[in-house]
């Protein structure tokens, strides 16, 4: 249902499952029927190579110029990944993909850092029915994003001179992605 509510004409989404291995369920498509039934029969088993799965998913965004967001539904634990969280954060920022981790049962921990660095937002749910609320909030976030990109004439000034964005309208806020580079 999330895809049916959030996807607009021309938008695409994909589904990837992971444990100790990666399992592509649905390639990028705008077909909400495929996306709705892609995870049918999916069950949790095996170790959780969460960081590796996120990096793999980020690579899938290469060459896609539209709005880019990655929603990660997990218990937040990582077992046996080749990538440490710092490399995952760098990969998300370099890819320009906002990451929205939804942690099942425990806090997002390192995934919260990933969300902050990439411009996404993390969420923790304790009960199954909270998942609908987490998806609703994520949908609201995705519908209200604006991207402002600034690149100084002299590249070295990017790290030396911080840029401040002030939102003057009440009820709105700015989030920054500090290390975004093309």
Q: How is this structure best summarized?
A:
The chain is α/β, with parallel strands linked by helices and 182 residues long.
Number of helices: 7
Report the major sheet: 3 strands, parallel
Overall geometry: globular
- Topology as a string of helices (H) and strands (E): HEEHHEHEHEHH
Biggest sheet strand line-up: 3-4-5
Overall mean pLDDT score?
A: 82
Radius of gyration equals 17 Å
User: What is the number of E strands?
Assistant: 5
Percent helix range? 25-40%
Q: Could you tell me how far the N terminus lies from the C terminus, measured between alpha carbons in angstroms?
A: 33 Å
Residue stretches low in confidence (pLDDT < 50, at least 5 long) are: none
Class from secondary-structure proportions = alpha/beta
Strand content range: 15-25%
Describe the structure.
32% of the residues lie in helices and 16% in strands. The chain is built from seven helices and five strands. Strands 3-4-5 form a three-stranded parallel β-sheet, with helices on both faces. Strands 1-2 form a two-stranded antiparallel sheet. Helix 3 (50-59) packs parallel to helix 4 (85-95) and helix 4 runs parallel beside helix 5. The longest helix is centred in the C-terminal third of the chain and has 14 residues, at 130-143.
